[in-house]
């Protein structure tokens, strides 16, 4: 018994000692959580001096009960039981539904996870318009020359945007020795990127990987030179959109850290909704073109040329026939946009709870 206790104590001390390294973090935290913004260093993205707010609809449309195997369940109850922490429905710039659950409220910060991929796409489009990046057809080795030795000369920015780079990347979230754990819990993304290799010919196959978007992040950081990705987001999007709250972007390390651009933009539900509103209006915000209109259209249209796929384009997911588009995170985080209904839906949660959220959100959008 004493021997077992010593082993347990030793393991516990080892975990505490190695908490700062990838494996230690993986063992200690076990799996990604919407509160992970508390465990990583970060940069702050300041809010606007004059925030934009969505008014509440005078006569909000009630949402129907949800059919389950145990009978119909009130919509609010269903959301609470499925570990949802925030749910917003905004149509015609008015809040039709806004509820928070499980001790969360409108001021609660939530990790975006892979919804951040869509945001980095916005910034790439803006950087091209600003002349900081020449074209999506540029090889990424123009910005990351150290990857030439790994055969990345043929990989273009467009390949990264469309997830057709041919990158060899283990996306498993349960393997502590895989790429995903290294990129999420590791403390040196630049070093990890230098070790990346290709497994397929660039432009030949769609393969969704977080490493691909992190490469986009390093391309952007190099293109910005002295400005950080977070400060660029603040200048170009966060303040112009009148965000109500500060946001943070998690870094790999405190000193000279690199933003985890494949994930980890931490913000509030209403501000996530404003990102959807920006793309709902083709990159225009109350008369000011924030993201080039053509970039938004390229990002949200179905295109199968160059071995791209019809359901994904420039770091945005598309529904069938590209009638709607959305940003998506691993635990069921969604920014869903339906241009035909002038509708935005945001769902943030602690878990997916095995719910097909895309199907449910699509049904809700159809009901409006």
Automatic annotation (TrEMBL):
- A Pfam family this chain is assigned to: Beta-lactamase
Q: Where is the Beta-lactamase-related domain?
A: 80-348
InterPro entries xrefs: Beta-lactam-related (IPR001466), Beta-lactam/transpept-like (IPR012338), Diverse_Enzym_Activities (IPR050789)
| The keyword Hydrolase belongs to this UniProt entry's keyword annotation | yes
Q: Mind listing the GO molecular function terms for this protein?
A: hydrolase activity
Q: Which residues form a coiled coil?
A: none
Q: What PROSITE patterns does its record include? A: PROKAR_LIPOPROTEIN (PS51257)
Is Hydrolase tagged as a keyword?
A: yes
Keywords, comma-separated and alphabetical = Hydrolase
Its name, as the record gives it, is Serine hydrolase
């Amino acid at each position: 018994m004493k021997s077992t206790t010593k082993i347990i104590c030793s393991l516990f001390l080892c975990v505490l000692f190695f908490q700062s390294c990838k494996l230690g973090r993986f063992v200690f935290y076990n799996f990604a959580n919407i509160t992970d913004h508390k465990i990583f260093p970060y940069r702050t993205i300041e809010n606007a001096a004059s925030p934009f707010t969505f008014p509440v609809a005078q006569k909000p449309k009630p949402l129907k009960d949800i059919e389950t195997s145990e009978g119909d369940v009130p919509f609010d109850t269903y959301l609470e039981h499925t570990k949802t922490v925030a749910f917003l429905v905004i149509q015609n710039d008015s809040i039709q539904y806004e509820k928070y659950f499980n001790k969360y409220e409108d001021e609660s910060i939530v990790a975006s996870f892979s919804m951040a991929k869509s945001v980095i796409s916005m910034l790439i489009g803006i950087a091209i318009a600003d002349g900081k990046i020449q074209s999506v057809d540029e090889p990424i080795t123009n910005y990351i020359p150290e990857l030439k030795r790994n055969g990345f000369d043929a990989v273009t920015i467009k390949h990264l945007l469309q997830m057709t780079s041919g990158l060899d990347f283990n996306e498993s979230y349960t393997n502590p020795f895989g790429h995903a754990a290294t990129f999420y819990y590791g403390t040196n993304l630049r070093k990890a990127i230098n070790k990346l290799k290709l497994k397929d010919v660039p432009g030949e196959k769609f393969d969704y990987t977080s490493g691909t978007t992190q490469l986009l992040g390093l391309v952007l950081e190099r293109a910005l030179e002295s400005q950080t990705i977070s400060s660029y987001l603040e200048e170009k999007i966060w303040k112009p959109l009148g965000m109500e709250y500060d946001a943070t972007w998690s870094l790999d390390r405190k000193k000279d850290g690199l933003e985890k651009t494949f994930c980890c933009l931490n913000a509030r539900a209403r501000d996530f909704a404003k990102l959807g509103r920006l793309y709902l209006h083709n990159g225009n915000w109350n008369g000011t073109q924030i993201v080039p209109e053509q970039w938004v259209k390229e990002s949200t249209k179905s295109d199968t040329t160059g071995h791209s796929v019809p359901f994904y384009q420039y770091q945005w997911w598309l529904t069938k026939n590209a009638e709607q588009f959305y940003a998506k995170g691993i635990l069921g985080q969604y920014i869903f946009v339906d241009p035909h209904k002038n509708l935005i839906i945001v769902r943030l949660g602690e878990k997916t709870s095995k719910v097909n959220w895309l199907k449910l959100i699509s049904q809700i959008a159809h009901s409006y």
